Amino acid sequence: MGVNLFAPSRPDTCAPTRFVPDALRPRLVPGSVLVFDELYGYPGWREHEYRALCEVLGAGGCDFLAFSDQAVALEIVAPE
C-alpha cells in the first residue's frame, strides 16, 4: 500500500513547479493525489505548471479528478 502524501506548493512557472513532482516521484504510486492551484485557464498556462506536470508524469500518467476555474486535483495512475 502506498503512502498518503500531501505536499502543497505555490510556484507558478515550469522550472520551480517541476521540482516538486520530481522530488516526490519516488513516492508517487497509483492512487497518489496531486493538487495544483493554477494548472490551466490563464494566458500561457501550457508553459507553466501544466508543462511541468506533463514533463514529469508523461502522457497517461494521471487521471483528472476535480476542476475549478484554474485548480485541478489529479490521481496518479502510472508514474513513468
List the topology elements.
Layout: H1 14-24, E1 33-36, H2 49-57, E2 62-67, E3 72-76
Antiparallel strand pairs: 1-3, 2-3
Name the features.
alpha+beta
- Oligomeric state of the chains in view: single chain
Distance between the termini: 18 Å
Number of strands: 3
Helix % is: 25-40%
Number of discrete helical segments: 2
Strand content: 15-25%
> Strand-and-helix sequence, N→C?
HEHEE
Principal-axes geometry comes out as globular
Numbering strands along the chain, what is their spatial order in the largest sheet? Answer: 1-3-2
Radius of gyration: 12 Å
How confident overall, as mean pLDDT?
77
Low-confidence stretches: none
Description:
The protein is α+β, with helices and mostly antiparallel strands and 80 residues long. 25% of the residues lie in helices and 19% in strands. It has two helices and three strands; from the N terminus they run αβαββ. It has a three-stranded antiparallel sheet with strand order 1-3-2, with no helix packed on it. The longest helix has 11 residues.
Summarize the structure.
25% of the residues lie in helices and 19% in strands.
